[in-house]
């Protein structure tokens, strides 16, 4: 059985719905992904359109090279900074204590903000004892940034259970969020259960299967029943499992489509049918390799 987070569908009202992080910070259930949204006009237009449509959470990373465009779009939206939940990540080549703190300072400058709502380690580096040590030092830098108030919450991405266990043995603080690849073809149920058992909020990346949800006949069928799209069914399934998620698009009509998932509900049978589609298939690299470089 796939896990269902205790904060499941009962708090799913609309795009402003949030989940509580372990420290009480409220994180929107649905946000905007920006991987491959190009710096400059493309990412700026996407973020402005998303904010206009009601999105209040933006996910980026230093690796994406688009933080400046996002910073500009958020600043020009006229929304008070505290109404937008901004996430960024420390990149693989920025890991280490000093260099993670420098990376955070850079991200803050690019994003034109005094604080991040969530700062994540982009990929664990478990390949060698030395690289893992660097990840632990990165985590210590995140703990310091959190204590100093330049980030409201800290977490990780792409950590498997053994990475989370090893981090717990070396540190007092648990990550508040684990953002990992999750969609009908890759569900990693025991990782979700582990996170739930330890109060770690789970966030799905590649929620619309990199644009390939329409290739899945079961999603197409369920979508027809609800007069929704396969992408909307995939997002709704993730939300009903209690996870947060961040579908990416640079097209206004798809941004609207991906946010229009609060007026229908998947039945228990439909949820179970999608749970059965797990085939352990990744779009991204396996975390044991340390991610993309
Ligand atoms: N922590 C990590 O290691 C990690 C790794 C990967 C991603 N992420 C984050 O998670 C976000 C989401 O993941 P992702 O971008 O890899 O994959 P995704 O959101 O599943 O898919 C994005 C792709 O699907 C297309 N698309 C979006 N909505 C659609 C719809 N309704 N119908 C058809 N096609 C649609 C987009 O094209 P258009 O833009 O042309 O509409 C884009 O090509 C990223 O943007 C990033 O913020 C994190």
Indicate the mean pLDDT: 95
CATH superfamily: NADP-dependent oxidoreductase domain
The top-level CATH class is Alpha Beta
**First-to-last CA distance:** 34 Å
How does this model look, in words?
- It is a single chain.
- With 293 residues, the protein is an alpha/beta fold.
- The chain has one domain (9-279): NADP-dependent oxidoreductase domain (TIM Barrel), CATH 3.20.20.
- Helices cover 39% and strands 13% of the residues.
- The chain contains 10 helices and 10 strands.
- The protein has helices spanning 41-53, 67-76, 97-110, 129-148, 161-170, 189-197, 217-226, 230-240, 252-259, 268-275, and strands at 18-20, 26-28, 32-33, 57-59, 85-90, 118-121, 154-157, 177-181, 201-205, 244-245.
- It has an 8-stranded parallel sheet with strand order 3-4-5-6-7-8-9-10. The protein has a two-stranded antiparallel sheet with strand order 1-2.
- Strand 3 (32-33), helix 1 (41-53) and strand 4 form a beta-alpha-beta unit.
- Helix 1 (41-53) packs across helix 2 (67-76) and helix 3 (97-110) packs across helix 4 (129-148).
- The longest helix is centred in the middle third of the chain and has 20 residues, at 129-148.
- The chain starts with 17 loop residues before the first strand and ends in an 18-residue tail after the last helix.
- It binds NADP nicotinamide-adenine-dinucleotide phosphate.
């Amino acid at each position: 059985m796939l896990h269902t987070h205790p904060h499941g569908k009962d708090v799913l009202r609309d795009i402003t719905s949030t989940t509580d992080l372990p420290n009480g910070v409220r994180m929107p259930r649905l946000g905007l992904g920006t991987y491959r949204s190009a710096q400059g006009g493309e990412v700026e237009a996407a973020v402005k359109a998303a904010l206009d449509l009601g999105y209040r959470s933006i996910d980026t990373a230093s690796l994406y090279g688009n933080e400046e465009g996002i910073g500009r779009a958020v600043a020009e939206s006229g929304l008070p900074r505290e109404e937008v939940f901004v996430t960024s990540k420390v990149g693989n080549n920025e890991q280490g204590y000093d260099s993670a703190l420098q990376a955070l300072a850079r991200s803050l400058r690019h994003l034109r903000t005094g604080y991040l709502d969530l700062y994540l380690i982009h990929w664990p580096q478990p390949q060698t004892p030395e690289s893992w040590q660097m990840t632990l030092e990165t985590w210590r830098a995140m703990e310091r940034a959190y204590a100093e108030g330049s980030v409201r919450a800290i977490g990780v991405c792409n950590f498997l259970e053994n990475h989370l266990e090893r981090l717990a043995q070396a540190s007092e603080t648990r990550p508040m969020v684990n953002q990992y690849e999750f969609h009908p073809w890759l569900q990693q149920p025991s990782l979700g259960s582990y996170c739930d058992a330890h109060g770690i909020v789970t966030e799905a990346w590649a929620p619309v299967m990199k644009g390939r949800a329409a290739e899945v006949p079961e999603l197409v069928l369920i979508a027809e029943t609800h007069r929704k799209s396969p992408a909307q069914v995939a997002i709704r399934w993730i939300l009903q499992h209690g996870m947060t998620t961040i579908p990416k698009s640079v097209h206004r009509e798809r941004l609207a489509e991906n946010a229009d998932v609060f007026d229908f509900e998947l039945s228990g049978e439909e949820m179970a049918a999608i749970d059965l589609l797990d085939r352990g298939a990744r779009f991204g690299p396996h975390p044991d390799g340390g991610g993309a470089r």
